[in-house]
Amino acid sequence: MTWQFNPYALPLFLSAIPLVVIMFAAWRHRSNLAARLFLGFTAGALGLVLSYAMELLGANLPAILFALRFEYLSHCGLVFWPLFALAYSGYETAITRRRVLALFVVPAIMTVLVWTNERHGLVYSYTGVQIVDSLVLFDRTYGIALWGWLIYLSALFLAGYVILFRKAIHTPAHFHGQIGWLILAGVLPAVGMVLTVTRTPPFAALDPTPYTVTLACIPLAISLFRFRLFDLIPAAYERVIESMDDAVIVCDAQYRIVQINSAAARLTGHAAQLVGGSVEAALAAITDLTLEPRSLDRSGTRMEIISRAATGARYYDLRVSPLRNRQQVMTGQVFVLREITDRKRAEQQALDLALERERVRVLETFIQNASHDFRTPISIILTSTYLLGKIGESVRERALALSQPAAPAAPERLGESLSEIADGVARMRDKAQAVQASATRLEKMVESMLEVTELERTTQFAFAVCDLNGLVGESVQAYRAIAAQKALALQFEPGSAIPRLRVDERKLRRAVELLVDNAIHYTPQHGAVSVSTDERAGEAVIQIRDTGIGISDADLPHIFEPFYRADHARSDATGGAGLGLSIAKRIVEAHAGRIEVESAPGQGSAFRIYLPLNTELATAQA
Ligand code: ADP
Fold first, then answer.
1. By C-alpha distance, which of 120, 170, 182 is closest to 145?
2. Residues with C-beta less than 6 Å from any ligand 1 atom
3. Residue 565 Cα, ligand 1 centroid: separation in angstroms?
4. pLDDT band, very low/low/confident/very high, at 403 (cuts 50, 70, 90)
């Protein structure tokens, strides 16, 4: 064996340096199967460049053939390429010892054939040397075994590409850089092989494959160091997502699903069909809510969604995080759904409990106020009936005394006694009237209380189309006589063109009458009460304005509470039960309306009922 200096060997020796660095980086991740397999094919590449460099240094055929044997040995590294692609893509289970051994059968046969080629010529039918530019180079004619070997190597290359391509399609854009550079690194040696086999000039005398392997170091290094191959590989990332209890859906920038874990698959029901499908469809399978993924592009979108499963409603906390590349361009989104049904149920129970407590509190206040209000008329009745008995007794005694035949009844004493009896009877009548007034007041209070509780329970209002001006006009009419008694000016100003409304006529009239009644009651003699109707911004307005005593700022926020009466009214024995406004409010709210009040003490008050106009009716009338 003789050797020569060949400048073409230099770049090959130099390429060993980056290859060793790359192998060292892979070695550091050797606990990862993909990294070990990567190490296998980079070792093959290193073997190839070094053995070919040796071949170039060979100055006669024995030296060249010696190096050639090692070149073929390093070809075996290519078996690791599809195996690496499998491990990288998460199909480690497909890599069994048997399959790996089976893949090495052809390389083993080929190695034996290369080493024994002089006897059969199956790999090279002719081997010799040629002199090119005063350099001794290998000259050969391919034998049948070599063609078979090339087909086998191409199949290994192809298998690796197909697996990596599939992964690239089904993995978030985040990994596309990593996979893209890997594929390019794999393509370069394949191009080299084609050039070698076809003996394309200017590479006719040289073998370009080791040089393309050298070039492949660049994309490999980019994938490894820039895109952190092995620090974060799709398979590992998928395992993390898969092991999460939360449902995770990853989509690309076109809102197509690239990944969905089993928790999300269980939720949507059709995971297999959903990969590659729209994320909108997947979300629609979980909730009735229409979620437009484009509207969730803002970072950190978070919302609660309800899924109506057969087993009952389930609540989820949905978080959407956009995935962005280095240029901050959105490359996809991650949807994470965490079930919060238990927490929601606990919250609901706490809310129900709080509502129940509030109801009990309201009931207690209601009973306290009611009993307080009942006490005055009851004590009036009790004292009046007691006094009635007392006066009655003394009247009876006087009458009895007069009826005694033995009594010396001087005419002047007789007159005096009779006037005392008449006086007693008059006091008895006053007491009876007080009893009647208190009983009437009690009756009114009981009726109001029943009305309040009935309104609380009744959900069925009898709604019918009605003319608002007619309804309010009749209510005002009913109070004309009472207003006249107090010398009050009572006016009604109907608004023009008020659309007909759907209301419970009887109940709404009751609400208006309660307000008119209050206005008259709390307005001193010679005052004025004016009622009007109007239409404002899609609402019908009924206004009851008076020039009465008004309501203080301290009382204003409470007047709609049951039994609340401003102090002056409370001391007024003829005042109502303090339920009128709360009844009116409930009626108006049952019509989806509201009551507002404006008042100034000593100047008067204005109560306004706002009722939403029924748009369908309004257009039908137009
Ligand atoms: P009441 O039966 O006492 O009138 P309401 O519920 O109708 O009960 O009214 C509650 C309180 O609001 C009244 O006690 C009174 O103090 C005050 N109020 C209601 N309407 C008027 C009004 N038009 N002018 C002055 N005060 C009013």
1. 120
2. 518-519, 522, 546, 548-551, 559, 564-566, 569, 575-582, 605
3. 6
4. confident
**Ligand 1 center from residue 579 Cα (angstroms):** 9
Q: Which two tokens stand for residue 284?
A: 């629609």
Distance from residue 547's CA to the centre of ligand 1 (Å) = 14
Test site for ligand 1: of 455, 518, 552, 561, most ligand atoms within 8 A of the Cβ: 518
Q: Which atom of ligand 1 is nearest to the CA of 607?
A: 23
Distances (CA, A) of 145 to 125, 170, 216, 414: 10, 38, 27, 158
Query: Cα(278) to centroid of ligand 1, in Å?
Result: 62
Least confident of 152-156, 221-225, 347-351: 221-225
- CB under 8 Å, gap of 24 or more: what pairs does 90-98 form? 90/167, 90/234, 90/235, 90/238, 90/239, 91/163, 92/33, 92/235, 95/33, 95/37
Q: Is the pTM of this model over 0.70?
A: no
Residue type, 420: E
DSSP 17-67: HHHHHHHHHHHHTTTSHHHHHHHHHHHHHHHHHHHHHHHHHB-SHHHHHHH
Strand order in the sheet with 594-600: 489-493, 528-536, 539-546, 604-612, 594-600
Contact 194, 50 (CB under 8 A): no
